[in-house]
Amino acid sequence: MSQPDVVYRSTSDVGSSYQKSLKKGLISFISVDLSRFTQVDEISCFPLTWRSYRPKTKLLCRKCGASIGYGYGEPAVLCSFDPASSSSSTSQKYLIKIQALQPSDVYKEYADCLSKFLAHSPYLELVSLAGLTELPDAALCELRISGTSLRSLSFYCCSGITDDGLEQVSTGCPNLVSLELYRCFNVTDHGLEILSKSCNALKSLNLGYCVAISDRGIGAIFRNCPNICAIIIAYCRGVSGVGFRGCPSTLSHLEAESCMLSRDGLLDVVSGGGLEYLNLYNLRSSTGLDVLDRVGYAKKLRFLNLRMCRYLTDDSVAAIASGCPLIEEWSLAVCHGVRLPGWSAIGLFCNKLKILHVNRCRNICDQSLQALRDGCVYLEVLHIHGCGKITNNGLASFSIVRPNVKQRVDEVMSIGPSIEDLFRLQ
Known about the structure:
alpha/beta; Leucine-rich repeat, LRR (right-handed beta-alpha superhelix); 15-stranded mixed sheet; three-stranded antiparallel sheet; LRR_dom_sf; At4g08330-like; F-box/LRR-repeat protein 15-like leucin rich repeat domain-containing protein; FBXL15_LRR
C-alpha cells in the first residue's frame, strides 16, 4: 500500500523518542484519509494499570475490512483500575484514579468514564479525580446511585466542584471515611454542613485552600462527625479556630499552615485533648501578637511544626515545653523571637525530644546551644544551619559532649509522620 493511501505522516518533530517509536512499530500521522479507512472507537477499561490514558481507535481498510492497526490520541488523563487479588466478588475492593496530565476540555468524557466505572463496580471503595480542574458538579450525579460502597474520594484541585456537588456526594456516599477537597475554591460552609449531616463516618478531611469556608463549616464537621481524626485547613484564612470548640478526642492530626488562628481559637483547637500532630507553619497573626502559649494545653502532642512563626516569644516556648512533655520532634526554624530563655526551657523540660530544627534562627547562640546540650537527653538529630550567633567553638563543644547527636544542615519543611497516610484506606 503506498504512502498516499495513509496520508499526512507527521515528521516535523522527528527525534530520539520518534526513533524509539519506529523501533516498536509505531508511526505518527497528523490525520487519516477516511475515504480509505474506517475508524472504530474502542474503550478498554478493565483492568487498567498505571499508564497514560489515550483514546483508542481501531483502523480498518474500507475495501477489504482488514485491521490496519490502532490509533491513539494525545494522553489526557492518568487512569488506574486495580482489582484486589481476591477472586470473590463479595470481597473485591476496587481502586480508580483519573488524573489530568495536561490542560484539556474533554471533562464531559471524564464524567462519562466515571459513570461507566461506577455502573460496573458495585464494590468500588476509592475514586480519585485529582487535577480535573474544570470537572463540573454534573459529573457527580452517578454518585447518588452507585456511591454507597465508596469510602474514599479525592477532588484534589477540582476547582469546578461547588456545594451542589458536595450535596450529591453526601446523598450517595454515606460511608465515606476520607475526602479531599484541596483547592475546591467554591465549596462553602453550606456545603460542609450538608456533607457532615450525611457522611457521619468521616475520619480524614482535606480542606486546604478552601478559602470560602469559616468556623461555621468547621463546627458543623465536628458536631456531626464524631470519628474525625485528621483535618487540613491550610491557607483557610477565614478560620480563626473557634469552630474547633468541643472537637472530639479522636482528632489527632491538624495542619493549619498559614492560617489566622486567634488566641481563643488555638485554645479551642486543642480542646479535644487528643492532638498528637500539629502543623502551624507560618501562622499569621491579625494582631501582631504571640498567641501560641495555648498550644501548651495539648498534653499528648508529639510533633509540632512552628517553622516561620515570627511572632513566637520565649514565654510561649516555655509554656509549650513545660505543658507538652511528650514532644518528640519540634521545628522552630526561622523563629527569630526565641532567645536564651526559650532554648533553656526546651533543654529543661523536653526530656523526650528526639529531633529539633533550629535552622536560620537569628537569636540562638553558644549559650543556648549549651542549654540544649545539657538537657534534651534523648536528642538524636539537630537540624542547624545559618545561625549567625553560633560559633565554631560552640558547635565543637556541643559535639564533644553529645557525639551521638547528628548535626544536619538540611532544611525540612514537613516534620513527623506524613499526614497524607491518614487519607489512605487501610
